[in-house]
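As noted in the main text, all predictions were made from sequence alone. Below is one such record, for PPIase cyclophilin-type domain-containing protein.
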Amino acid sequence: MSQATTSESGQKKNSLENEGRMSSGVKSKSTRSDRGSKKLVKMTPIEREKIAWKNFIRKFMQELRNATPIVDDSPPKLNISLMYDQETLRSQQIAIQSHYNLCPEIVKLLHHINVFGGRTETFSFDYQKLQPASNFSTRRGEALQIQEANKAVKEMIKNTQPRLPRVDYYARFWKSMESYMQYNSQYPLFWKVKKKKKKETVEVGPSKTYFRQYVTEKSAKYPDKRPRVFFEISIKNVGAIGKMVAVLFSDYVPMTVKNFLAFCNPKAELTYKGCFFYLIFQNFFCKTGDVVENKGFGGTSLYGPYFGDEDHTLQHGERGILTMYNQIPNRNQCQFLITFRELKSLNGSNVVFGKIIKGFHVLESIESVGSKKTGRPKVEIYISDCDEI
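Prediction:
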């Protein structure tokens, strides 16, 4: 009896182990104890790591499938009518349709040439077949018409006259181009310095005896009796940057010097004190001296609205020359220029009346705040003080 019960309990144990293996799918033994508790499945560390990775990947893929985008990556809505021009598309459609309608006609012509041959023989070396097939009288009439048309064109070309005299036109054109190149170049034009001539400068030496000289009380103490003035230059919101001293050639142009000294008096009603530099062309000149409007468009003189040119003996031969500014010859007022280099283009049109002898570093500062193209100063620079020394 005991042996039978033992065998039956062994069979039940084996059947439970088989059912556990089939249900779990893991090659391990599972049994039930007498109390009904399950035993833990025995697995190696590698198997546990594989199962953990599978669970992690399964969970990650599930989150990836159910993920919601944080950024809107959908394509923007575009209005096609704004991207294409309706008129252009319509014209292209008409052109394509016309080409499509023309294709059958071209095919018909090619077929006709293939069947009946063309008017020109292009594949045969028999030059006798290359004779024109048109009528001789027709070709002769066309040739006469072309000849008459050529005669008419020949007469038109023969009787054509230039609107402007070519020599004078090209002379004026070359003069304007030469002055433009002289203004934009840093060095003198090479065709003007081929011959080594004596540099045309003004000398601060003893005055010539045959010139009438304008002498003031202050200038009488100098050996040459030429007046001297100073200019204090300042920049707005910065202050004074230095002084320049100039000598005036009263032995050459006494009227011009007298007019200039009248406006150099800081206590006068109309004075250079406070005048701005309106134009500063680098490597060319600077302009100032409008005592009326202080904008570069006004002016007056000691002798009236304006006075004439006095003498053109002195030349614009170097840097720091003081010369009168005038838009029209013989109409000098109070505005004047200070040159930054030799300017032969001003000779004969502007009257030289002085020269800077001290303070060239101030002149360099004035030039540095100018412009080469427009002449408009970068800062507001002006004459803060001036007087005769």
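Helices lie at 2-24, 45-65, 80-83, 86-116, 136-158, 166-184, 254-264, 360-368. Strands lie at 228-235, 239-248, 279-281, 285-288, 321-324, 336-339, 352-358, 381-388. These features were considered when defining construct boundaries for the mutagenesis experiments described in Section 2.9.
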